[in-house]
Amino acid sequence: MKVIKPSCLAMAVCSTLLSPIYVNAAEQNASDEKSVEKIVVTGSRIKGVDLEGKQPLVVIDADDIRKSGATSVSELMRQISQTRGGEGSFSTSESGATSTSTPAGQAAASLRGLGPSSTLTLINGRRVAASSFASGTQNFVDVNSIPLAAIERIEVLATGASAIYGADAVAGVINYILKKDYQGAELNLSYGNSFESTNEGKMNVNLVLGTDLAGGNLTVFADYYKRDAFSAQDRDFTRTPSLVNSYSYLPKDTPNIYYYSARSGNELGNPDCKSEFVTTEFGEDICAYYRNEDDMLNSDLETASLGFIYSKEIGDLVWDTDFFYSHSDSQAISAPAAINQVDDSEGPWANETSLAVFSDEVRNDLLDQMYIDPYDTIAGRELWGFRYDARFGTPRTVEVQTNALRIVSGLSGDIGEWEWESAVTLSKSESEQKASAGIYNRYKYHALLSGELCSDGSIADYNQSSDNLSCGAGDLLAMYNPFLAGDSANNDLLAMSQEIPTRDGESTVYGWDARVSGDLFEFNDQIIRAAFGIEARKEEITDIPSLNARARAENEYLVDVFGFGSSLSEADRFQWGMFAELNIPLNDIVELQLAGRYDDYDDFGDTFNPKVAITVRPIDELILRASWSTSFRAPSLTQAGVKLRTTTATYDCGANQSVADLYCEGAGDQRSPNVLELGNANLRAEESESISVGFAYSPTDNTTLTVDYWNFQHDGLVDTDMTGALASATNDASLRHCGIVPEGETGISYEEDLCLVSDINGLTIEDDGANLSEILDAWVDFDDPRYAELPLYRDHIIQLENTGEQNVSGVDLSFVHSVVFSQGELSFSVDATHYLEFERNKAGSFELEELIGTWRYPENIAMARVAWSGDAFYTSLTVDYTSEYQDDIEGLKNRQIEEIDELGFLDENGQRDVDSWLTVRANIGYDFENMNINFTINNLLNEEPPVAYGSSRGFDSLNHDALGANYRLSMTYFF
Q: Are 933 and 151 in contact (CB under 8 A)?
């Protein structure tokens, strides 16, 4: 092996860039100048080349992880600026208990806010299978499946890297490098919790053991982690709604009388309401529901993992195998499902006898205000009753089990001066989801409402001539009364309509790669080094829900159960690629990196992506660096292969005036109707061009400053665009359908009765050339609706497409200075990201809007730290900062905006800012001879998250945290 002697600046840059969270003293002695193993640094496949100063690389080592106070990979990644800000990274706080939600317990890390599918996740430089359950249609790697105990270090390269790694490295690469060649044993025990009286405990036990075995080295690791649930009810500031007018009309347990059945045309509040009435914008007094009643900020999570790494020399070859397996159990809870009619329209029917639960006086008062009308039951009878507004009383709850397995086995060796390696990879993620509460069959429920359900779960047969109901098997059950709360017999009837839909997913990656690296030739007294490689990969994914959770054309797309959609996906692809990389020292000052990669996919085509990087070192203390590259993201297997996904799609009334006028009464809020989402085999790859320019300056061994400008131009984003679909339907009659969208077509579904009216030329909404504004006026005259909008029905069918672009740029700054004393070292560090722009297409428009400083896009993110490290004792104080940004006022309902304005919180432009947030993290530890004790307090000053009215939670859970002051005590014993 050759001796690698990094320059003084390279060593300084390493000590800075490789530890942005915690910077430790690095003792350098003359004895260090001995042969060391050549390593590969993320961003290059060439071993042993000094690339640390050539690219903005962030490395978090095992000691940094230990001192971070984090109990999971997702918690750790939230501490670096490159993964904060925007809507990219997410954790289980964003999960829900519906079939298409991100599975509880899983999390994704995203660089630069570009989304987890644009961030390539590697383990030991090789790919990992994506979660079998996508986040919507965006596949992601569950970083919580990677045990902290196994990680030696994490390398983060936040710049385009497809020229080296292929697809998905649009925003960069996060490479989790596992421990290897470990000798000895260590056992770590940790426990953390908040300082509140509620229990949000986190417990972690992990073991690492390394020993010589059969002529090689075996490193074994095991990890167990348990986290208790954290609810919005556990904190005063989330227990009650931030706005009175953030209510839902659909209460649980005590239904309101639907406005359609009220003589006044206004909702009638339930006289037995369990809470105070809320006065609506129509002057109604109703029972209301607030999401915070059942909002779970973190779910119960329990994970266990086991793995090993084995390395052995066999003659001139080295055999390396790494394996790990993880299992997790988690639970997710969402708000109780809304109760609709069988066809999913609002206002289910209750029999007139339901009012018997009220006293004669109350019942007679209600009857004076109500219509009692005939309605058809599910068995075909005609009964008399009224319509009501409600949701079920039990939150939707699902249990998720996930198993992840990964094995990589390879050989490496030398051919002359060249080093080679080749490996095979198998990575698999399997998840099973089962609803355990709060999911009800729509047909059985409506049969219960009319007393038409049999004890065997079948719907009774109705004989019209004899006016009798009969059951083929079992007995006819009593009529369920939705207004009878707290009655055990009535609740037992409701339980007869409960369903347990399931969902099974599997994601697999099979891979093979081969690489060589070495000296190519000598040029101008400099050695040009190179790396070449080839890779082949097969990916498969299936996401199969049970039949009762699927939308099916033969059933008019009605899912059997309320409020629990599904994503049916099956897809696979084969890909191969080859790359070349050159490291060219032009002279003692200038060094060049050239790379290029060709990839071919069997489903959407091929692509070539180059990279050019240059380093100029005019003096030993200064490195100037720049790079340019292109990257791509292949459409995910879910995006290409989703057959039919039931979900909601948001349209933004403020992004398109014609949409606002036709569907939002001219307001600028956001709506989320039910839609069916289709995959698209004709999707193009997303493409990106990235630029990075910066410098690293280290005037002394103890002081280093780095500044990097970066820019991404990301085109061909894959998404659905409901706003665009509504805008397109304005001029395209083929997209407008009265009633359900016919099978095989796409477009917008309107109430069937809308086709009963026409514009002044007699054209209906389904006709070419129809004037939609005139049809809206005609509809208002015809139906006298509560809202002067074109009436949307349900299950609009929209297709994934390449919707637009986003342009993101910013500046990263890192500064470290340390002072060495005889007793130890005092260090100061700052790590910050300043966003210069984040432009993205407005929904339904080619116009770009600037997101920096708007909702969830802070302009500045920073960390400052002071630390002391002695022979055994160490301590640090870290300040994390997120700058202010605009609240999402435009996305609120008019009644909410009016309330905020009355409170005096809006400026002259009708806007308000979510305040900046600053938290303090304190760490203290001591290294004994065979033991370490570490204590961390996060959010030392117990800062509540800033109020954010744009979130129903009252705070922004992506950029802030409601946990408050919390601690973690860790003890590690070394055997």
A: no
What whole-number distance in Å separates Cα of residue 400 and Cα of residue 392?
Answer: 22
Buried b (16+ CB within 10 A) or exposed e, 375-384: bebbbebebe
pLDDT at residue 91 is higher than 80: no
Domain ranges across the chain:
57-230+299-332+400-434+504-545+566-635+686-717+803-974, 253-288+335-395+439-501, 640-679+721-799
Query: pLDDT band at 841, cuts 50/70/90?
Result: confident
d(CA 708, CA 410): 36
Quick check: 689 and 612 in contact, CB under 8 A?
Answer: no
Residue 184: CB atoms within 10 Å: 10
The pTM of the full predicted model, rounded to 2 decimals, is 0.87
Predicted confidence at residue 144, as pLDDT, reads: 83
Rg of the chain (C-alpha set): 31
Report the C-alpha gap between 234 and 244 in whole angstroms: 20
Tens digits of per-residue pLDDT, 772-806?
Answer: 999 999 999 999 998 899 999 988 999 888 888 99
Identify the burial level of 354 via C-beta atoms within 10 angstroms of its C-beta, where 0-12 means exposed, 13-18 middle and 19 or more buried. buried
- Compute the distance between CA of residue 331 and CA of residue 103 in angstroms, rounded to an integer: 9
Q: Are strands 285-286 and 296-298 parallel, antiparallel or unpaired?
A: unpaired
**Type of residue numbered 268:** L
Going by pLDDT thresholds of 50, 70 and 90, the confidence category of residue 4 is very low
d(CA 917, CA 919): 7
Q: What is the DSSP letter of 957?
A: T
Helices 488-495, 442-449: inter-axial angle, 10-degree rounding:
140
Query: Residue 342: exposed, middle, or buried by beta-carbon count in 10 A (0-12, 13-18, 19+)?
Result: middle
Rounded mean pLDDT, 222-243: 94
Place of tokens 């292109």: 630
Residue ranges with strand state E in 727-823: 736-738, 748-750, 796-799, 801-820
For residue 364, the tally of other CB atoms under 10 A from its CB is: 11
pLDDT digits (tens, 9 = 90+) for 480-495: 999 999 999 999 999 9
| DSSP-derived 3-state class of residue 448 | helix
What b/e sequence results for 788-812 when a residue is b if at least 16 CB atoms lie within 10 Å of its CB, and e otherwise? ebbbbbbbbbbbbbbbbbbbbbbeb
Q: Are 513 and 535 in contact (CB under 8 A)?
A: yes
Contact yes or no for 955/925 (Cβ under 8 A): no
In CATH terms, the superfamily for domain 57-230+299-332+400-434+504-545+566-635+686-717+803-974 is TonB-dependent receptor, beta-barrel domain (2.40.170.20)
What is the C-alpha to C-alpha distance for residues 898 and 953, in angstroms, rounded to an integer?
19
User: Token match 């960390």: residue?
Assistant: 863
Q: Return d(Cα 383, Cα 447) in angstroms, integer.
A: 12
List the structure tokens of 298: 């973190």
Q: Which of 436, 571, 459, 577 is nearest to 511 (CA)?
A: 577
Closest-CA residue to 972 (of 219, 193, 208): 208
Which residues make beta-bridge pairs with 513? Answer: 423, 535
SS3 state at 729: helix
Give the pLDDT of residue 32. 40
| Sign of the CA dihedral with 959 first, then 960, 963, and 968 last | positive
Span 269-290, pLDDT tens digits: 999 998 899 999 999 999 999 9
Residue 318: count of CB within 10 angstroms of its CB: 16
Please, is 367 exposed, middle or buried when counting C-beta atoms within 10 Å of its C-beta (0-12, 13-18, 19+)?
Answer: middle
**Cα–chain-centroid distance for residue 595?**
32
**Tokens coding 263:** 């003589």
Strand ranges inside 92-166, DSSP E: 119-123, 126-127, 151-157
Average predicted confidence (pLDDT) for the chain = 89
Q: Cα–Cα distances in Å, from 582 out to 157, 186, 387, 522? A: 19, 41, 72, 13
Longest dimension (CA), the chain: 104
